[in-house]
């Protein structure tokens, strides 16, 4: 998260806790300590790329992909792939390489990629850019499973479930990132949520390829995660 964004998040949470009469000096210190300078995304997909090659590299996997803006990339640049932040380590004429370490492979759906898989891509937010989606870190929290896909005369209503946890949650009209795409939660339950996808998002991203049973990458709203952690820290929730 950038230095410019961090104080805003701190202020929002401080006002929330103050209103609820549970703000503490230790809680705010914990939040400030947790916020570090990180690359930030918005969940607005810039383009899709295609997996061209997959190589096993000891416990890691090297992925070679092609995309419309390959020639604009630089070595050591961060790029969100289905919401997972990976570093460009090599660039060729029409493709680039990223490496996923074992920890990333265990937490995401990258293990399900094959040659030809279409991947949602987003480059880091520029300082002068608009935050059209929401604050996205590119750190996948966990994976979810597509339970249902309903065609509602052009738009699509998708329900996704995930392993129950007190660390992550969704709220109606809140934000969640699915395969790197910033979406608004339509319905929310203990360990599942539903999102409504407009035709443009359906066609422009890899959402159109989803099937029931598919595994998707999930990143929950960062502000909600900090709120949940601080509430838990103060024994407000167990």
Describe the fold and architecture:
- This is Riboflavin synthase.
- Lumazine-binding repeats lie at residues 40-134, 135-231.
- By secondary structure, this protein is of the alpha+beta class.
- Helices cover 20% and strands 35% of the residues.
- It contains five helices and twelve strands.
- It has helices at residues 6-19, 25-34, 102-107, 199-204, 222-233; strands at residues 47-57, 60-66, 78-81, 84-91, 96-100, 118-123, 142-152, 155-161, 175-178, 181-188, 192-197, 215-220.
- The protein has a six-stranded antiparallel beta barrel with strand order 1-2-5-4-3-6. Strands 7-8-11-10-9-12 form a six-stranded antiparallel β-barrel.
- A hairpin with a 3-residue loop joins strand 10 and strand 11.
- The radius of gyration is 18 Å and the shape is globular.
- The two termini are 28 Å apart.
Radius of gyration: 18 Å
Please work out how many helical segments DSSP would assign: 5
Sequence of secondary-structure elements: HHEEEEEHEEEEEEHEH
- Fraction in beta strands: 25-35%
Q: Count all strands and give the number.
A: 12
**Spatial order of strands in the largest sheet:** 1-2-5-4-3-6
Helix content: 10-25%
Question: Quick one: overall form?
Answer: globular
What does the average pLDDT come to?
Answer: 82
Secondary structure class reads alpha+beta
Low-confidence stretches: 1-8, 19-37
* Sheet with the most strands, sense and barrel status: 6 strands, antiparallel, barrel
Distance between the termini: 28 Å
InterPro entries: ATP_synth_asu-like_sf, Lumazine-bd, Lumazine-bd_dom, Riboflavin_synthase-like_b-brl
Pathway: Cofactor biosynthesis; riboflavin biosynthesis; riboflavin from 2-hydroxy-3-oxobutyl phosphate and 5-amino-6-(D-ribitylamino)uracil: step 2/2
Domain Lumazine-binding: 40-134, 135-231
Organism: Epilithonimonas pallida
């Amino acid at each position: 998260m950038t230095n410019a964004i961090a104080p805003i998040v701190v202020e929002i949470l401080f006002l929330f806790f103050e209103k609820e009469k549970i703000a503490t000096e230790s809680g705010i210190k914990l939040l400030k300590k947790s916020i570090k300078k990180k690359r930030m995304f918005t969940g607005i997909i810039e383009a899709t790329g295609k997996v061209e090659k997959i190589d096993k590299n000891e416990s890691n996997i090297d992925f070679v992909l092609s995309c419309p803006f390959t020639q604009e990339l630089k070595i050591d640049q961060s790029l969100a792939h289905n919401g997972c932040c990976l570093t460009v380590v090599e660039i060729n004429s029409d493709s680039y390489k990223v490496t996923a370490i074992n920890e990333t492979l265990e937490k995401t759906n990258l293990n399900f990629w094959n040659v030809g898989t279409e991947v949602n891509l987003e480059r880091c937010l520029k300082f002068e850019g608009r935050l059209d989606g929401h604050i996205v870190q590119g750190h996948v929290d966990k994976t979810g499973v597509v339970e249902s896909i309903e065609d509602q005369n052009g738009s699509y209503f998708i329900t996704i479930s995930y392993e129950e946890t007190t660390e992550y949650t969704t709220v109606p009209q809140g934000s969640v990132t699915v395969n790197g795409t910033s979406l608004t939660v339509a319905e929310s339950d203990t360990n599942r949520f539903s999102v409504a996808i407009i035709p443009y998002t359906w066609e422009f991203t890899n959402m159109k390829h989803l099937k029931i049973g598919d595994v998707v990458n999930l990143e929950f709203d960062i502000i909600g995660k900090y709120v949940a952690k601080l509430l838990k820290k103060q024994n407000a929730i167990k």
